[in-house]
Each structure stands twice: as structure tokens, then as C-alpha cells.
Amino acid sequence: MAGNATATDAAAAATSSPVWWTPDPNSGVGSGDNAWQLTAATLVGLQSVPGLVVLYGGIMKKKWAINSAFMAFYAFAAVLICWVLWAYEASFGEEMLPFVGKPNNVLGIDRMLAQSTLPSIGVSQQFPLATMVYFQFVFAAITLVIMAGAFLGRMNFYAWMIFVPLWLTLSYTVGAYSLWGGGFLFKLGVIDYSGGYVIHLSSGTAGFIGSYWIGPRLARDREDARPNNILTVLIGAGILWIGWNGFNGGDPYAANADAGVAVLNTNLCTAVSLLTWTVCDMLYFKKPSVIGAVQGMITGLVAITPAAGVVAGWGAILLGLGSGSIPWFTMNVLAKKLKFLERHFDDTLGVVHTHMVAGFIGGFGTGLWATVDGCAAFGLTNPGGAVAGNGIQVGYQVAGAMFIIGWNLVWTSLILLFIKYVLRIPLRMSEADLLLGDDAVHGEAAYVFGPCEAHDPENAGYIQGEEIMRTVSTNDAELSLGGPVAHATNPEKIHKNGESSGGI
Known about the structure:
Order of helices and strands: HHHEEHEEHHHHHHHHHHHHHHHH
Distance between the termini: 60 Å
Number of strands: 4
Number of domains: 1
Number of helices: 20
Shape: globular
């Protein structure tokens, strides 16, 4: 009987087991790699929950605080289920097509305890597969959480519930396998150290085109989009910044020197970007903005992501200068001049600027400033970027970006149209729900005290089930941050203080 097995029998069974239990005893790292990888994964997980959850809850209007936070919270949970059932293997397993792996689950205990490998690349890591699955899950999850920022304030939550697994399956897995799992972009030589393309360029592109298909927020919500709690925005932003140490520091898959380089460069680029954005605000709007500083912080984090461990410190500084100025210009100047985009692409938090534009800057900058030593430390054979005499790397980076952008434009559109026209689920909330916000959508309010849309007697009656239909032009119940909202009708007043409606 099993209960009578001796210690010798147990040791013999362990010795003959095909399961990978411990790293090579002759290795100087091994168990340290596993500890760091789990720590890095936890830091990245905290970026989503609670980082972006509280950031979204604070940066949106009071009436959208719960809905915005819940969209992020839901995505984190839904992605994990899909990830272990089929999406991890489609992203990092054996090749099925040049751009995607074979879907399969990773639920068996033998699989979880086995040594982590990337079969399409032919490399192994000094930790179990379970660690790798969780580490890559938090990256997949934050991609959907970031994208949600473009849809806040009007997307039908039921449509979002369907969209998350479909987009993860049909879009994220393709980018991840193509660049990280050994797919055709990896073989071409495109460098994406930690997700500038896989995560940020894809989420920014999907958020941009998705905002078109979903439709805009209510005019009044666009006209007055002041955050309900800037202090919670700063809390979320702080978690996001420090969590990025795991985001970029975990991608060498080892507790090694390159991880240290990635962490230092991450913080250096971010600081430069934040200060650059703040200076731009001061020169253009004549005052520094806390929300602007958060935007600059995020664009810096995004831009360094594809380059973190392969550029020198001066390369990180140059990336920070670019990420603090170019997205600032596209958000605060260019976007306001392109009236067609402003009318038809209501990207709530400016994800196209802070993630798509910044992600492209980071990828392009990687092609310019990647170093030979940095690439070698990361295990790449690329002979650096243009600064190292390898100018063709810039072309590879642009080609990779074009594929990610094109794939996401097409598949995000197809997924949303499928939900709307085949499944018959509206992408946008009803006008009544849009008017009331959290109370109508979830039956909950973020703040017990203080005025909000639902406190108007007629709106409260609607929540109780009475058929009271109100129009945007006649409802004056909304109060925000200290007083009644003026119903501006001039589109030029949408950003009265020179800031976008969040821009995260």
C-alpha cells in the first residue's frame, strides 16, 4: 500500500520520475531564477490588480468609477482561465503556423512541474513551467486591461465579457508567438524585449479602432471628464511604475546582469519622460499637471519596454526624451487639429497616444540604439542596432510594427462586428445607462456620500424600474467635483485645461 512506502522507495520514485524538480545543482542560479521570476510576475500582476483598477476608478468621472475598475478586474480573471486552457500554448508552444502555436491546456501536474521550455526556439529556463505560465499570464492580462482604457464610459459590459476571450485568442496569441514564441518575426530578427509591440502597440491599436466601432461617450461626459480622485490616480500610477521593475526585469527569465540593466534603464527612461512631459505642459499650458506627469510616466514605461535590456543608459535617456514629447504632441496638439479623429474615435484615456505611439517610438528607438553587448546579454544574435552599424535593424523594427498594427486593426474590427451583428450584443450601452452610469449598470455607487447622477429624484425613480426616459440635454442632475456641470456645446471646450480626458 502507498501508506507503507519507505523513504528509500520514495527517493527511488523521485529519481526515476521524468518530472523536473530542481535546477542543475552545479548552476550558480537556478532556485534564485525561480524566486525572481515569481516575484517579477507578482509585481506585474499588481500593476493590473490593484494598480490600473484604482487608477481607472480614480481618473474617470464619479459615475463611471465602478464600471471602469470592474472592466479591468474582470479582464484579469477571464484571461487567466483562457490562458491555462489554450492560450499559453498558442503563444509559447509548438508551432502550428508561422505566427501562432498549437492551442493546448497546461493543467496537468506533470506539465506544471516540468522544466519550462520554449519548443519553437529550443531554449529552457531554470524554473518550472508553472512559473512561466503565470509570468506570461500577467502580461496577457494587462494587455486587455490597458485596452479597456480606450473603451471606458460607454462600452456594454456584456460585450466586453465576450470580447476579452476572443481578442486574447485571435490577436494576443499571434503577436506573442510571432515575437516571443519563435514565430516569423522572431526569426526575422525583430527585437521586443518585454512587450512594446506584443502588449502596448497591440493594445493601443486595438483601443483606437475599437473606439470607432463602439461609438463615443455621451457629449456631456466628453465635455466634462475631470477625474473624481486624483490621489487614487497617483496611487495606481505608483504601483504601475514600481511594478514595471518586474515587467522588464523579469524578461531575461533569470536573475542575471541583464535583469539589472533592464530595471535601471526602465526607471531612467521613465523619469526623463515624466519630466519632459511636465516641461511641455509648463511651456504650452503655463502650469504643471499631475495628470500630465502620470501620462509622461506611462509613455516612458511603454517606450523603454521593447528596449530595456539591450540599450545603454544614454539610449534610455534618448527614449525618455522622445516618449515625453512626441506622444505629448500627438495628444495635446495634433489630435485636436484632426477633427475627424476627435469626432469618431473617442479613445477615453488616450491609449492610442500613451501606448500605440509610445510603443512604436520604443520599437523604432530599439532599432537605432540597441547595443551588441546588450543583445548578447539577452541571448540574442542581433548585432545591435543602427548605432552599432546594423542599420537594417530599424527596418526590421518597422516591419514588425506594421504587422502588429495591421493584424490588430483587422481582427479587433472583425471581433467587435461579430459581437454586434452575429451575437446581437450591443457594443455601446443604452442612452439611459450612459446617463446614470454605475448605478444603472451595476446597481452600485463608488461613493456613498456626495451628489451623483442617481441622486436626482427622477433618475432614482428610473433605477427603481419606472420608465422615465431622460435626454442628455434636459438632465441637470449630474454634479462633479464641487458643483453643477456646465453643459458646454462647443467641442473646443472638451479639454478646457489643455489635458486629454485621462490619457493613460
